[in-house]
Structures are given as C-alpha cells and as structure tokens.
Amino acid sequence: MIQVFREHRSLRIAGLMGPGAFWLVVFFLIPLLIMAVISFMSRDQFGFPAPPFTLGNYWDVVKDIRFNPSISFVGGLNIRLFDGLYLELFWRSIWLSLVSTIITLLIAFPVALFMSRLPRGYRSLTLFLVMIPFWTNFLVRTYALQFMLRGNGPINTLLRALGLEPIDLLFTPAAVMIGLVYGNLPFMILPLYTSLEKFDWTMIEAANDLGANTLQAFRRVMLPLVSPGLVAGSILTFVPAVGSYITVELMGGGRTNMIGYTIAQQFSASVNWPFGSALSLLMMIIVTIAAVLYFRSGRGEQRTVL
Amino acid sequence: MRDVSKVFGDVVAVDHVSMGIRQKEFFAMLGPSGCGKTTSLRMIAGFERPTSGEIYIDGKAMGHTPPFQRNVNTVFQSYALFPHMTVEQNVSFGLEMKGLSRREIIRRVGEALELVRLPQMAKRYPRQMSGGQQQRVALARALVNRPNVLLLDEPLGALDAKLRKEMQIELKTLQREVGITFIFVTHDQEEALTMSDRIAVFSKGKVLQIGTPLEIYERPTTRFVADFIGETNFLEGRVQEVNGEFASVIVDGGRRFVGRAMDGVRPGIQAVISVRPEKAQLVEQPDSSPNCYEVQVHSIAYVGSDTRVIVMLGENKLDVWEQNTISTLDPNYFFKPGETAWLTFKPENALVLAH
C-alpha cells in the first residue's frame, strides 16, 4: 500500500490533499453553490426559496441606485456621487472595515515589533498572552465589552470619579469600531509578529550605513520585507470585519448597520433566503475584488528605480 | 581612534584603544572572537557609541554622528543585501539617499558593477547569486558611495577556501585601484598577513601591537602575538643577562639559550624564548651556535613542501619544519622517530619575550 503511494506522484498528492479537498467540497463548495442557486429563486408564501428562477433579487439590490451627486458635512466631509439603500450599506461596511483595519494595524504593529525584539523565552509568553482571549467565546467577550462601555459601566464610572462628563459610547459607530478592532487585533498581531521575528535587523544597519535615516530605512527596507505579514494580517482583519454580525448587533445595537447584519436578518426576521443569498454572493465578490487589488498593490511596493 | 572604550553591562568589550589609521591604508584588525575588533569597527561605523574616548574621521570628531551622516560604508559579514531589491537597486540605494540625479546614479552604478566585474548581473536578485557574487555586490554597494573609509567585517568568512584566496587578491587590487582606506576585521591571521599594509592585533579588548605584517610576524612584542600569528615554540625560563640587543635565558633543565631581547626584558625576570619552526634546524653534528642541543625525534610528518618534525628537548616538545629542498625518494634522507639529532638556531632568529 505504502509502496504504491511512494511510486505514484499523483496518488501521493491525492493522499495528502484528499481529506482537505473532500471537506471543502462537501461543506464549503456545495453549500456555496446551493446559495448561488437560491439567490436566483423566488420566495414561497412562507418566505422560503421556490421556483421560478429570477434575477429579481439582484435587481432589488441595485434598482434604487440613482446618480445623485451631493456634498455634505455630516460626520466630516462627505462627497457622494450615487444614492441607494444597499449601495450605501455596502459602502459603509467596507469603509468601517477599512478604518478598523487601519486602526488595528496601527495598534498591532508596535506590539508585534516589541514582541519580536524580546528574548526568546519572553516571546513565547507574549504569544501566549495574545492568544488567551481565544479561550473565551467571542459572544461572551463582546458582552463583556458592551458592559465596559455602558452608561454605568467601568469607563463612565471612572470618568465621573475624575469629575468628567460620561460619554455614551454604546450603540454608536464608535462602539462598533472598538468591537471590531478588539476582536481582530490578535489576527493582525500574529502574522505581523511572524514576519517581524524573521526580520534581519542588520538590514536596518545596512540602510543606515548607506545614508538612510530611520524613517527611510523603515519605509524602503523594513516595510517591504515585512509586507507578507502586513498583507496577511490586513486581509485576516478586513474580511471578517466586512461580514461581522455579532459585533454590529451587540455593540451597534442594530443602529449602525453593516451588510453582515442585514444578511443575517434576511435569513431570520425577514425570512427572505433568496435575497439574503444574493446579498451574500455580492459581498463575497466585492471582498474578493478588494483583496486581489490589495495583493496587487502590495507587490507594487517593490518599485523599480532604474 | 583615541583612547576609546566600550562597555556592555559589566563586560569591557574595548579597553582604552588608540589607533591611528592612515589615509588609503589597508588596515586589518586581527584577533580571536570576542577580542573587541568587531565592536571597534561598529564604533567607527557609528552603530555603537564609545562609552568613553573619541573617534576621528578625517580629523573630525564623530561624537554622536549617526551612521547615515558618516562618510563611511560597511561590508557586512552576512553582506546584508536587501533581498527585495535587484543588484542594481541595492547598489543605487546609497546614491538615492544622497539625492543624486537619476543620470548620475545610473552612471555610477554602472561603474561600480564594472569594478566588481558583475555588470551582467544588474537585474538579478541577491538570492539568485552565489556567495562570491553577493560579496561583490556588497562591495559595489558600499564603494559606489565613494566613502572616506570602507569597513569590512570578516567579509570573506562565508566563502570557501579557494574563493577566499581569490577574493583576498581581488580585494587588495581593488583597494589600490579605488584609493580608499580599508579597515578590515578578521580572525584569520593568514588573511591579515596577505592583504594588509598594517595589522592591529587585538586581545581581550586591548590592542597588543600595531605594525606591518613583517613586523608582526618577525618581531612580535608579546607571547600572545607570537603565538597567534603563525606557529612558534616557547621555552620558559629566567633571564640570565642582557647584552645589547641580545639576552640569554636559562631554561628549566639548565640549558642556556640566546635570542633578541624584546620590550621589558631585564636580568632575573621570567621570560620565554620564542623560535618559529621554520627558523630552527635539525643537524647531525653540533655547530657553533649557542642554541645547539641534542634532541630526540618524536614524530615526523611529510607535508610535501616541508617535513614537520616534532622533537623532545628534555620535557619540552618543539616543532621544527625542514624545507624539502632536495627531490628524493630515499627514506634514509629523513629523520626517523627515536633517532637523536642536534637542534640549532641562530640567536638573531629567536626572540626573548617578557610578557
């Protein structure tokens, strides 16, 4: 038996890849296809998918998009070219996710840098600390976070004790942002740490030696060399953020809507599986395009000089 | 370098070192690992700051000048080439940082690659090149900036023996061509002897001796230098008398030897006689030298150019290298273990070292 595997390369590959491929086909690819089919179906009287096949669900997403340029100063400078309920929803989801990814990155980078510079024994300890939150269920942790931000929670109690005005954070976009950053931080720290740990610091000395100051050395040498971790961390943060549901529900209280939350509602409260499927598929396509564009830009960093 | 020290925690890495390195000189800092030579180099580059003392480059005190403002470039032991850049981009990095025009950069990068004989490799990435080629890129990347001083940290350490020999000659030629001061760190004494105009021998954070390869090899002032550079035999004893340039030493066992008196040799002190294996001979009849004694042949090794004989002088083992100046297949031509012979060397070929 083993002899057969040794002799036939294709069999060996099948042996290694088989279980994983089987799992993905049965539990990912087939459900995805089912979802794609449902997204082209109508609803029966109970809201469940039924024939006939239609493009109506997709039309519902785009039908109210209007060309309507406007500038407003609500929540900062706001320039819009198009108008539309779902367009706005998609845009807000991507925008919030993008901002949360950037904030996560800005917090995670110094942490990962610090960790990678520690003596070996301490490194494992800090890695362990970063992973501790995974011991507790995400839902429970989000409830805890909710408690922190409450009107009479610890933060406001502290503010009052200091004689400051309490702030009403819970159920605001800021609360959603805090939740997203909190939840995704380990997913940014870990790949960044992996890249930074492998980073050879004589590269920085070499750059300094050749006349680069600290900022130039960082931008031209360190950043490109740790970009694999940067890209991986950003995607691991951005993609779940776009589709996040628990955070939006518990931290935003449904008031700061994001696409993941709306999709969840289609499958529960609204009982509109076909429309929910269509939204899911559209989101997947958009996120995939965004990720590919990001990968491309990462490669572009290695610009040619001559 | 004037009276420079560097302390890491409670370890004194460099201990009150003063060195004057001349313009356009090929200067080697030689010593075993942990002797302070690399730390000295890093202080000249600006990666470390002296705990005390001052470094002057072109007469200017360096103080806290950061590396990127010093007109000094380094070839790192690991080369430290930027893996995400092509050879061309690596070499142009320093010039870009200086803000030179694109035209000037292209011209100088071309010249530098020409100098290290790699112009056809411009578009390659470091990982696509051999160790020797990477070494040349590292050289080009440093030299393209036309530094006042080029620092080389064990640059040949990672190369195999044959390539190292080639690069030694090439580096030396290159240095003459570009007319830049090279400061070179190595633990390989042969490399230092082959390449340098002058050598500083380091031990335990101190500079023991600075001199030309000839001076360092023929007139070491301390036991450490005599032992570290090349091979030598030591005979422990007490100085009997000092007579002008020469001193006599009574070695344990009562034998009397005469050699050149080096620094600090006074009658009555403990000292060693140092004689290099190639400067001693084995003969069949005693001669007129005051350093001629009967010895027992312990073992011999034929290594082609020489025959290396170990002889016993009482309790002392001594190495004697006889050059094979005659081509013969006759085994009787060589000494054999167990035979007796006369060991002899001239006083001017031996040194009496006090330290």
Structural notes for this entry:
The complex is a heterodimer of chains A (306) and B (355). Chain A is mostly helical and 306 residues long. Chain A has helices at 2-7, 9-38, 56-62, 85-117, 120-131, 138-149, 154-161, 173-198, 202-209, 214-242, 246-252, 259-267, 273-300, and strands at 42-43, 49-50, 66-72, 78-83. Helices cover 70% and strands 6% of the residues of chain A. In chain A, the strands form two sheets. In chain A, strands 1-2 form a two-stranded antiparallel sheet. The termini of chain A are far apart. The model of chain A is unreliable at 300-306 (pLDDT under 50). By secondary structure, chain B is α+β, with helices and mostly antiparallel strands. Chain B folds into two domains: 2-223, Rossmann fold (3-Layer(aba) Sandwich); 231-353, RNA polymerase II/Efflux pump adaptor protein, barrel-sandwich hybrid domain (OB fold (Dihydrolipoamide Acetyltransferase, E2P)), CATH 2.40.50. Helix content of chain B is 24%, strand content 34%. In chain B, the strands form five sheets. In chain B, strands 7-8-9-3-10-11 form a six-stranded mixed sheet, with helices on both faces. In chain B, strands 12-13-14-21-15 form a five-stranded mixed beta barrel. A five-stranded antiparallel sheet of chain B has the order 16-20-17-18-19, with no helix packed on it. Chain B is elongated and about 75 Å long. Chain B starts with a strand and ends with a strand. The chains are: A mainly alpha (306), B alpha+beta (355). The A-B interface holds A 200, 202-203, 205-213, 216, 220-221, 224-225, 302, 304-306 and B 45-47, 66-69, 72-74, 76, 78, 80-86, 88-89, 92-94, 96-98, 102, 105-106, 109, 141-142, 145.
